[in-house]
Amino acid sequence: MQLTNLEIKQLILELKPLVENSFLNKIQKLPNNWIKIKIQTKKGGKNLIITPNAFFITAYKMEARQNPSGFSSFLKKHLFNKKIKKFEQHELERIAVIEFENFFLFLEFFGKGNIVFTDKKKEILRAFNARTWAHRSLKKGEKYRFPPARGLNILKTNFKEFKQAFQKSKKDSIRTLISEFNTAPEYCEKAFKQSKIEKNIKASELNDLQLKKILNFLQKIYSVIPAKSLNEKIDETLAKNLIMSEQEPEENKKIEALKRTLEMQKKSLKNSLKKSKELEQKAQAIYSNYAKIQQDINTVKQNVGKKSQKEIMYKTNYVKKIDLKQKKLTIETD
Predict the structure, then answer these.
(1) In this structure, are 162 and 131 located in the same domain?
(2) Diameter of the chain by CA atoms?
(3) pLDDT digits over 267-323, tens only?
(4) Structural domain count of the chain
(5) 3-state secondary structure of 4
(6) Alpha-carbon Rg of the chain, whole angstroms?
(7) In this structure, what CATH number is given to the domain that contains residue 38?
């Protein structure tokens, strides 16, 4: 799930009263490179989850890895029991900023995602993913710099600036809107649809009335606070799926164990049936030759101590071996 810049704005507005002025108690690493930050708020302990593409406070119990990562341990060492002063979005970018008295956490929710930890002068102390681009470097000791803006902030754009962007463009209207302004493509599409304006018209051909309709729609949608909790929706989608994906391997292990037990039981039953059949055959052989076998037993009893085992066996019908110590006879019928 990839959050748009509008969803990040709405989510921060929803969580801001809870997160700001809370105290950080614990930082742990979850599966899938998620980070769990336990904060103490006015409403008790809460778990703030940070993923490469989203963040939310979860109502689910999410178990952390037993061996903490170096990154989470490093953050805990510096931020334990520290107060969160501010929780804000940088412009309309997909970047959230958590400000402490002497530190910053920059949460970047684009690309593969990142968490950058700096001091109060924004010098990088550690990054979850250390990377370097032509315009900035996210490595220890470097100054943290925001990435180049994806476009003009629609909430800070007046009509004159909006119109100029379209007049100088050589693209069609929808591409101009997406490239010149920091607005999610899905909301740009809605702006044209709701305004009943053809999106493929050349940008320079739109009149003032059409441009005002598009600008007003976008500024309104980026200013609206949703009635339903966006946090609950994200929590239900992401946290629940992660928990289920973790449970599946455990369930699979149980199923495999049951399969192995069943196979062992089948093998044991097969051996038992085989032995049962062999015993039945032996019993049938004894029953069919009972008279001669009884005669052999009497012959052995009568000659024990008088003749050698070989001589005794010669006088019998089926005796193949005599064990005087164990008092056993081995009989082999036809």
Answers:
(1) no
(2) 131
(3) 877 777 788 777 777 777 776 777 777 887 788 787 777 777 777 776 777 777 777
(4) 3
(5) coil
(6) 40
(7) 2.30.310.10
Q: 173 and 192 in contact (C-beta within 8 Å)?
A: yes
Asked if the structure places residue 297 within a domain, the reply is: yes
- Tell me whether residue 237 is in a domain: no
Last residue of a domain, one of 193, 221, 249: 221
Domain span at residue 319?
Answer: 289-334
For the entire predicted model, the pTM comes to 0.71
SS3 105: strand
Q: Are 24 and 37 within 8 A, CB to CB?
A: yes
Question: pLDDT of 57-116, one tens digit each?
Answer: 999 988 886 666 689 999 999 999 999 999 999 999 999 999 999 999 999 999 999 999
Please give the helix or strand (H or E) that residue 72 lies within, else none. helix 70-79
Q: Which residues contact 147 (CB under 8 A, 6 or more apart)?
A: 93, 108, 110, 133, 135, 136
Query: Any long-range contacts for 112-117 (C-beta under 8 Å, 24+ apart)?
Result: 112/52, 113/51, 113/52, 113/53, 114/52, 114/138, 115/35, 115/50, 115/71, 116/144, 117/74, 117/75, 117/78
Domain final residue pick, 103, 138, 173:
138
Q: For tokens 């101590």, what's the residue?
A: 305
Identify the sign of the CA torsion 22, 24, 28, 29: positive
**77 and 9, same structural domain?**
yes
Measuring CA to CA, how many Å separate 291 from each of 215, 266, 302, 322? 111, 39, 17, 19
Element (H, E) at 107: strand 103-108
Pick the closest to residue 47 from 66, 27, 32 (CA basis): 27
Considering Cα of 285, then 290, then 296, then 298, what sign does the dihedral take? positive
Q: Which residues pair with 226 in a beta bridge?
A: none
What is the distance, to the nearest Å, from the Cα of residue 100 to the centroid of all Cα atoms in its chain? 29
